[in-house]
DNA sequence: GCTTGACTTGAACCATTGTTTAAGTTGGAG
DNA sequence: CTCCAACTTAAACAATGGTTCAAGTCAAGC
C-alpha cells in the first residue's frame, strides 16, 4: 500500500518540462498562479502526478486559443480535487471555450472577408461597418464613447 | 495656396482621439512607436492629417486580429510617404494579413472541433494529435524539443 | 559518503501595450 | 490681452507571461 506497483511514477519538474516541452520556469510560474500543483518531498522538491501532464497540455492549447491564464485557472478549478479527472471531467472543462471560440472564428472570418474593401473604401470611418462596429462582439466594453474601434 | 479651402482641416490629438475612440495617450504611444506621425505647430503641438484617422482604424482592426504593433508598423511602412494613400495602397497593406488570418481561422476551427475529444481521450500526449502538433503552424519555432505544445 | 546534476527561492529583468501623474506651455474665445 | 481647456514631456506604474540569476540544497549513482 505504500507504493502500488501499477501506479505510475510521479514526475519531477525537469521530467514534466521534458515531457511537456514547457520550460521548468514556466511550470513553476503556473504553480505560483495556481494552474497546477504538486506535492513536496521531504527535501522540498516538487513531485507532480501524471495527470498534470494533461493539465499542462490543456493550458498550452488554451493559450494558443488566446485565453489568458486567469481564465484557464478558473476553468481548471472545475476539475475534481480528490481524484484523477475522467474523460467527462475534461469534456466539461473543454466546453468552456467552445462558444467563445465559435464566436471568435466568426468574427475573424468577417474581418478577413471585409478587411480589404472596407479599408479601401473608407467605410472605416462609419459606425455601421462590420470592422468597426463592436456590437457583434461578445461582451459590452463598458461606457464611454467608442466611435471607431473598441479596445484591442 | 497657403490654406486651400477644400483641404480638410488638420486634427489635434484630442480631436483624433474623439473621432477614433482611441485615448490620446495611446495615440502618443503609437507615434512614439512610429505607427503614426504628425507635424508640429510653432508651439510644438501635434497636428494630424485626416488620413491618420484611417491609419488608426487600421491599427485597431489589426490589433483585434491579434497582430502585434511591430508587425502593424512594418505593414504601414508600405504606404507612400509623399501622398495620401489610395484605395489600392490600402488594399495592398490589408493583403498582408489575409493569408495569416486564413491560416489562423483554420487552426482555430480544428482546435475547436477536436478540443473535447482530444483532451478527453488522452491523445494530447501523442505527437500526432492535431492539437499538440505544431507542424501545421505558420512558422517553425526554432530548435529544441517541443514534445507537447509549442510556445503560446 | 562524495560528487554532480537537478532542484529550491526570491528578486530582478524582459517585452508588449499602454495609463497616470506632475509640471509646465499653447492657443483660441471672449 | 487674459484665461482656461487642451496641449507638451518624462517618468513611473500596471498587467500579462514569463526568463534569468545568485546563492544555496537535495538526491542518486559510483
Q: What does this protein structure show overall?
A:
- The structure is a homodimer.
- By secondary structure, chain A is an all-alpha fold.
- Chain A has two domains: about 10-100, Multidrug-efflux Transporter Regulator, Chain: A, Domain 2, CATH 1.10.1660; about 115-150, no CATH class.
- Chain A is built from five helices and two strands, in the order H-H-E-E-H-H-H.
- The model of chain A is unreliable at about 135-150 (pLDDT under 50).
- The interface between A and B is large, with 50 and 50 residues.
Largest sheet of chain A: 2 strands, antiparallel
**Strand-and-helix sequence of chain A, N→C?**
HHEEHHH
- Report the β-strand fraction of chain A as a percent range: under 5%
Instruction: Please state the second-level CATH architecture of the largest domain in chain A.
Output: Orthogonal Bundle
Distance between the termini of chain A: 55 Å
Q: Would you report the number of β strands of chain A?
A: 2
| Sheet/helix structural class of chain A | mainly alpha
Label the overall shape of chain A.
elongated
Helical residue percent of chain A? 40-55%
* Number of distinct helices of chain A: 5
Low-confidence stretches of chain A at least 5 residues in length (pLDDT < 50)? 134-151
Largest interface: A-B, 50 and 50 residues
pLDDT averaged over residues of chain A: 80
| Total domain modules of chain A | 2
Major beta sheet, strand line-up of chain A:
1-2
Radius of gyration of chain A: 22 Å
Can you tell me the CATH class of the largest domain in chain A?
A: Mainly Alpha
In the CATH hierarchy, the third-tier topology of the largest domain in chain A is known as Multidrug-efflux Transporter Regulator, Chain: A, Domain 2
For this structure, the quaternary state is homodimer
